Amino acid sequence: MACSWTCSRILGLSLGTTALFAAGANMVLLFPNWDVTYLLRGLIGKHAMLGSGVWGGGLMVFTAATLISLMGWRYGCFSKSGPCISMLTALLSSGLALFGALICFITSGVALKDGPFCMFNDVSSFNQTQAWKYDYPFKDLHNRNYLYDHSLWNSVCLEPSKAVIWHVSFFSSLLCISLLQIFLVVIHFINSFLGLFCSLCE
Question: Is Glycosyltransferase there in the keyword field (predicted)?
């Protein structure tokens, strides 16, 4: 049981740290090139504005991490809790963290697929007129994938500058962080199950 508690402490701390990183990465996406004017003008993409890294991979995972840490340290109401109560709390905290991490993972994947929200030169096929507008230029690009074709990164999006690099860097970070969170949640569930089994054997 002591090994299970120690593992819960480490997992709680690790999940809490990833939650802070997820929230930070999502917040940075609201300020492309560290410029607040895009947010004030409403020129931020819907995936970043959704804030899944803040409330999903951030707040929900951090809440679960706090519960897991309290269980590990046997603090407060967990100091004399039985194995069934501990298992129920472990299931609830795992479910909360898993749900938040999955939301962040899915949103980040869709964001990488759609590409950044930026100003680009839109050529109308009807009358071949050119116009500058804000949208997702890579969303309906069927012939080429911007993630693999780096020649598009500096030639399509005109504003913000380096919009593609900013978008890909931080949404890729969110994708990796949420994947790590899912992995840690699975370990926590296995650890809790083993802890319950050991306590029943005792």
Answer: no
